[in-house]
Design goal:
This protein has about 325 residues and is mostly beta strands. Helix content is about 5%, strand content about 45%. Strands 4-3-26-25 form a four-stranded antiparallel beta sheet, with no helix packed on it. A four-stranded antiparallel beta sheet has the order 5-6-7-8, covered by helices on one side.
Length: about 325
């Protein structure tokens, strides 16, 4: 996927993968959080994904997807991940890196032109998210064994620490998302390398606070609804800790399940009208590789958006509602 630190989640996913290998002829793909290839065992060999990935754009109504960047730019960057559409729909922020180069932050126009690197300081970055005014981008940055949240003003290149805690706090923060009103940033926090839950902090800085009631299972990738009243999130469900999608009410903190499939659902993102959610799932693949799906926010009307032999993930809906940018990773047999 991308170079972020989710060591505990990745380890758990590998255990789930091993269990599935023992149970069925073809296993489900796991979310590694590091850009490592996914794999799926079969009778005639093992299917794996390429270590390289690229950004593609598709219509939410279906049809073929097109690459966002030119072949030359894609080859130069290595592996692209975590696309996020700017509030005005004119730009896309994303992370990119390779095996021998650190993952950094980039911005490109919606047509794939005017690519530029955004300064982020030392350390690999992941999960960029735009401020509502389009002036700043929040992201997670690796520092030692932990991640911290930073933001950068793309007009001045000024970088600042968002969650003002010392490294000795021993917490690791990831997948930040700016609230539509601009006041809050929601994120996933791994406390002392143990349980992972949802937290929020003032975008201007200050001590973070828990966003949801303590849960027995891990929660990551919070994304605000366009009206700021709800948050959709991934939550690991026992006994195999497969990922399902939940929606939380921001005011009451009450939650409800959005998906209950036997597969894994990843990377939810809202449509601009708040009526739909796009996400990645391995539900439709015996090999375990992921496709994009769209579902209504009330849990009805599930439909598959992509159905290729490749691995599709990390969708982001354009503000106009007419396009979805996502990550596509080729697959091959080894």
């Amino acid at each position: 996927m991308h170079a972020s630190i989710r060591p505990r989640w990745a380890a758990r996913s590998v255990l789930v993968l091993a269990a599935l290998l023992l149970a069925v002829p073809a296993c489900s793909a796991h979310r590694s959080g590091s850009g490592a290839p996914y794999s799926a065992a079969g009778i005639r060999g093992t299917m794996v994904t390429s270590p390289r990935s690229a950004l593609y754009v598709a219509s939410p109504t279906g049809g073929p997807a097109r690459p966002l960047l030119s072949p030359a730019e894609a080859a130069r960057l290595g592996s692209e991940s975590d696309p996020a559409w700017s509030p005005d729909g004119q730009q896309i922020a994303f992370a990119a890196g390779c095996a021998s180069c650190p993952t950094k932050l980039y911005v490109v126009s919606r047509n794939g032109n005017d690519l530029r690197k955004i300064p982020t300081g030392q350390g690999e970055v992941s999960s960029p998210g735009w401020s509502p005014d389009g002036h700043s981008i929040v992201f997670a940055r690796q520092q030692g064994d932990d991640q911290f949240l930073y933001s950068v003003d793309i007009r001045t290149d000024r970088i600042r620490l968002v969650n003002s805690e010392p490294p000795s706090a021993d917490n690791s923060d990831s997948t930040p998302a700016w609230s539509p009103g601009g006041r809050w940033i929601a994120f996933a926090r791994e406390v002392h390398h143990e349980q992972v839950g949802l937290w929020e902090t003032l975008a201007a800085g200050g001590p973070p606070r828990r966003l949801t009631r303590p849960q027995p299972d891990e929660q990551i990738h919070p994304r605000w609804s366009p009206n700021g009243r709800r948050i959709v999130v991934m939550q690991a469900m026992p006994p195999l800790f497969t990922w399902d999608l939940f929606i939380f009410d921001v005011r009451t903190r009450a939650g409800r399940m959005l998906t209950t499939s036997p597969g894994n659902e990843y990377d939810p993102a809202w449509s601009p009208n708040g009526g739909y959610i796009v996400f990645a799932s391995d539900l439709g693949r015996q090999t375990g590789f992921r496709s994009l799906y769209v579902i209504k926010a009330d849990g009805s009307g599930l439909r598959r958006l992509t159905a290729t032999a490749q691995d599709d993930s990390m969708p982001s809906w354009s503000p106009s509602g007419t396009q979805i940018v996502f990550v596509r990773r080729p697959t091959m047999r080894v």
